[in-house]
Design a protein that fits this description.
The structure is a single chain. The radius of gyration is 37 Å and the shape is elongated. By secondary structure, it is an alpha+beta fold. A three-stranded antiparallel sheet has the order 1-2-3, covered by helices on one side. It has one domain.
């Protein structure tokens, strides 16, 4: 009888290698399951959409906030302006409009500005909101309020 199974074709015998390992044995790293890494197509599309939304929102909202910083600077500078102490509401309004025009602020209307002269000084309030279209029928609305008191 046969002592083993005879295989036809390639020689499948296990020959010892240096170090006592058999040539037919799999190395320990090859016996592990190799997991693939990387993003799937759905993840990639999600990240591209998220990044594009962020870029569009930044491009549309950055000018609004840059203008708001200019308005805040104008209002704060009026509070520390010594030439406006004791000025009438009309003089304060003219000074404010001139400063806003110099800084290129065009979207603030008269309805957004309140100037009240009181015994403690002149209070200047700018309260406005800006609406910017983002995508289709989706808008972003930013509301700003700045105030100061010009002491007498």
């Amino acid at each position: 009888m046969h002592e083993g199974i005879v295989m036809k074709g390639k020689d499948r015998s296990s020959k010892p290698l240096a170090g006592g390992k058999l040539s037919g044995a799999l190395p320990s790293s090859a016996s592990r399951v190799v997991r693939q890494r990387g993003a799937s197509l759905i993840q990639l599309v999600f990240y591209v959409v998220l990044a594009s939304f962020s870029v569009v929102a930044t491009v549309r909202l950055a000018p609004i906030y840059m203008d708001a910083w200019k308005v805040r600077s104008v209002v704060n500078s009026m509070g520390s302006e010594t030439a406006l102490r004791g000025a009438s509401a009309r003089e304060v309004s003219q000074s404010l409009n001139r400063r806003l025009n110099i800084n290129g602020i065009r979207h603030i209307e008269r309805d957004h500005i309140a100037i009240q002269v009181g015994p403690g000084g002149t209070e200047v309030v700018i309260d406005y909101e800006v609406r910017v279209p983002l995508f289709g029928n989706l808008d972003a609305i930013a509301h700003f309020r700045y105030d100061t008191v010009i002491s007498n």
